[in-house]
């Protein structure tokens, strides 16, 4: 799910009570508290400090977008790692082999010959070792 500008603006407007275009630690603490997360001001100040790119002590729209897009990338990477583990060969950890690909596809209801699995791997096998590493797998999935 790709967020668009108005989604970010909606989030910003929710947290930015005084409408100055920035989220202060106090605004963030109040709104997070309303969501059920009771945070002490020091925790919120540390969070704002981590997100604050210009050092003004507040989270700007740019900071908010960067944080939300970064979280999305982290989530995508976790999903890719989980998917890779499903196809990973139990005897050659860290790689997808033609046999492990054939086995997993079979479990998913797609019957492929070992030749077809080798061809699939060959298409994304950058170093020509006949295996897919996690790096090669992530390139294939993008």
TrEMBL record:
This is Calcium-binding protein CML. InterPro entries: EF-hand-dom_pair, EF_Hand_1_Ca_BS, EF_hand_dom, EF_hand_pair_protein_CML-like. It comes from Vigna unguiculata (Cowpea). One of its GO terms (molecular function) is calcium ion binding. Keywords: Calcium, Metal-binding, Repeat. Residues 3-38, 39-74, 112-142 form the EF-hand domain.
């Amino acid at each position: 799910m790709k967020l668009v500008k108005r989604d970010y603006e909606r989030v910003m407007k929710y947290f930015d009570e005084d409408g100055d275009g920035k989220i202060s630690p106090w605004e963030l603490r109040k709104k997070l508290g309303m969501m059920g997360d009771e945070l002490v001001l020091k925790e919120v100040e540390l969070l704002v400090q981590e997100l604050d790119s210009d050092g003004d002590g507040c989270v700007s729209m740019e900071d908010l977008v960067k944080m939300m897009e970064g979280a999305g990338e982290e989530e995508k990477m976790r999903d890719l790692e989980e998917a890779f583990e499903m196809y990973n060969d139990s005897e050659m950890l860290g790689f997808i082999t033609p046999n492990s690909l054939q086995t997993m596809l079979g479990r998913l209801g797609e019957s492929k010959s070992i030749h077809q699995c080798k061809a699939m791997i060959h298409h994304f096998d950058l170093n020509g070792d006949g295996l897919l590493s996690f790096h090669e797998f992530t390139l294939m999935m993008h």
